[in-house]
Design a protein that fits this description.
12 strands, 609 residues, Kinase-like_dom_sf, Prot_kinase_dom, five-stranded antiparallel β-sheet, alpha+beta, nucleotide-binding, 28 helices
């Protein structure tokens, strides 16, 4: 027993004599009759009469002392009654009581104490874990919406404990990991002793999310005709958010699938980054650290919302699930083919990548993995930077001939030697991409392209230009629009063939600025560095060649209240001279929504007004 504290209040000389004579019980009775219950409890505590001490401390309004005596008494009924007293106590007093219980090794009772108020759920969960109740700890965290932490408390999962496996399946489902939810629900059903109807519905949802709708319906028919409320199960699986439709080549590691977001109806890419690892390997701390590093950089870059950086729908680092919006174009690797791309077109593609890199480098973000197989193109044919930080999981990628070839030709030499990627290594990779696009193969020779980026390919990172400097070099005007032709596919919009004496040549949409446009505003608009403007391909005086709109683009109808819908920040980003002229001419028809859902200003509409 711990040392008894000093009496709550001083004793008189007569009271001290009674103590010295061993008359503790008589003294306690006298003290109680005079209303001094706290001292009476202290007196009885001297002779280990904890039951009486506990009662007197409770009457005196000293719950902490009463709890100390109840712990020493060791009777569960008394302890339960004293813990209930703390319902009316303040949070600080309950916290002290929980700490006392934990010091005495009564962790389950400490968790009960913390459950009486709005205390930190992690503290309650820790107490339950120390008490050996991992399932209870996980439920506490799950109720506090700390789903990932709740699942971590349950691991490693037991092989045959139905309630634990069922909770793990439910938590996996909440995290969006349909595969783990299915696997754990099946294990829980095999373990028995749990709600089979609820597990059947969960299993059906998971199978439906993975695209196995028929299997989901079979599960619903075979696992329990009714739930705990006597309700019949539904006749079709409740759809999950993401439905897998087809497999895709893995760009990062593991496996990849094409699917649809059943909430937004948008097409998505589902990357299971840990699919190639055994379950034990996925729990390796080094693997989790790598995924967390990838997660932090990817979300930080996506938060920039730059049009050259792919967005992220969902990234669960612990489960190794990365979900990206699906892009309509092919990856950049498919564009590296003989006989090679015209330099002007390759320079335009690389310039768009550099715009995103410049914005990211300015905030200290490094991409680290500019491999062409990981860079896909949008519906307009523009290459997009994939999630930043994929280099952190390079060790998870199984050896593939294509990936190895890209690593050897696109990655900076210092990174191949084991150094950490930097902004300078990103610049090297972009320059190598330009050369590969023009050469038509990885590692090929393209003297004109190489001369343009010779310093960016320097072995010494310090001698390479930064993204802004290289971007300015990529933005040179072209003399012949035919150099920009991407393919022989049909033009999505009726183009004007430019081959007259105006100096414009190639394919595009030609408009002539209306007389109301003064030269200063026109020059400012056409030189504006705003990605959301319809691209200007060439210009000769007041005649302008504009990129044709791809198939699937939609203009707003004339009666649409565009002021409430359109992102007016695009207009605000224009130079002052151009912004005023654009606002004066702005109509609903001047706004175009691309197939990717991006808003753009239509110069073919604005310049003619």
């Amino acid at each position: 027993m711990a040392a008894v504290p000093a009496p709550p209040e001083p004793l008189t000389a007569d009271e001290q004599r009674m103590l010295a004579q061993g008359k503790h019980e008589a003294l306690a009775q006298l003290l109680a009759q005079s209303g001094r219950h706290a001292v009476a409890g202290w007196v009885l505590e001297q002779i280990w009469e904890f039951a009486g001490a506990c009662e007197h401390y409770a009457r005196a309004g000293r719950p902490l002392d009463a709890l100390r005596a109840a712990i020493e008494l060791g009777r569960s009924d008394v302890l339960d009654r004293i813990i209930a007293v703390f319902t009316a106590a303040d949070a600080d007093t309950r916290q002290q009581a929980a700490a006392l219980l934990q010091r005495k090794g009564r962790h389950a009772d400490a968790a009960r104490m913390l459950a009486l108020g709005d205390h930190d759920p992690e503290a309650r969960a820790r107490a339950l874990v120390r008490a050996g109740d991992r399932l209870g700890a996980a439920r506490v965290l799950a109720e506090a919406d700390r789903v990932r932490e709740a699942l971590a408390v349950l691991e490693p999962l037991p092989e045959r404990h139905g309630p634990t496996l069922q909770l793990a399946a439910e938590l996996s489902w909440e995290l969006g990991d349909a595969e783990a939810a299915v696997r754990r629900a099946q294990a829980a059903i095999r373990a028995g002793g749990v709600d089979r109807a609820a597990l059947g519905r969960l299993l059906a949802r998971g199978l439906g999310a993975l695209g196995h709708d028929l299997a989901a319906q079979i599960v619903l028919q075979s696992h329990g005709p009714a739930n705990s409320r006597g309700e019949a199960p539904p006749t079709a699986p409740v759809p999950a958010r993401f439905q897998v439709r087809a497999s895709l080549p893995a760009s990062f590691s593991g496996a990849a699938y094409e699917g649809i977001d059943r909430v937004t109806l948008a097409e998505v890419e589902i990357h299971l980054l840990l699919a190639e690892l055994q379950e034990g390997g996925s729990a390796d701390p080094a693997v989790q650290d790598a995924l967390e590093a990838f997660h932090r950089r990817a979300l930080a870059a996506a938060a920039l919302e730059h049009p050259a950086i792919r967005g992220i729908v969902q990234f669960d680092a612990r489960a190794g699930i990365l979900i990206l919006p699906h892009e309509a174009g092919s990856n950049l690797r498919a564009l590296i083919r003989p006989p090679g791309m015209p330099l002007a077109r390759a320079r335009a593609l690389v310039a768009f990548l550099l715009e995103g890199l410049a914005a990211a480098h300015l905030r200290g973000l490094v991409h680290g993995s500019l491999l062409p197989a990981q860079l896909v193109c949008d519906a307009a044919g523009r290459p997009l930077l994939g999630p930043f930080g994929a280099d952190a999981i390079a060790g998870l990628i199984a050896t593939r001939t294509g990936a190895l070839e890209e690593l050897l030709t696109i990655t900076a030499p210092e990174v191949r030697a084991g150094a950490t990627p930097t902004a300078a290594s990103d610049i090297y990779s972009v320059a190598a991409l330009l050369v590969a696009l023009v050469a038509g193969n990885l590692g090929g020779a393209a003297p004109e392209a190489r001369a343009l980026v010779e310093d960016a390919l320097a072995d010494d990172p310090a001698k390479r230009p930064d993204a802004a400097a290289l971007l300015a070099r990529m933005r040179r005007r072209v003399a012949d629009l035919r150099d920009l032709s991407m393919s022989t596919e049909p033009i999505r919009q009726d183009p004007t063939v430019m081959s007259d004496d105006s100096g414009l040549a190639g394919h595009g949409v030609v408009v002539e600025a209306a007389p109301g446009w003064d030269d200063i505003a026109l020059d400012a608009l056409l030189a504006a560095d705003v990605p959301a403007l319809q691209p200007v391909l060439d210009r000769q005086g007041r005649r302008v060649a504009l990129a044709a709109w791809p198939e699937g683009c939609r203009r707003l109808a004339d009666d649409v209240p565009f002021i409430q819908l359109a992102p007016m920040a695009i207009v605000d980003a224009l130079p002052v001279e151009a912004a005023a002229a654009v606002r004066a001419r702005l109509t609903a028809g001047a706004w175009v929504v691309t197939p990717a859902g991006e808003w753009m200003l239509a110069l073919d509409e604005l310049l003619t007004r």
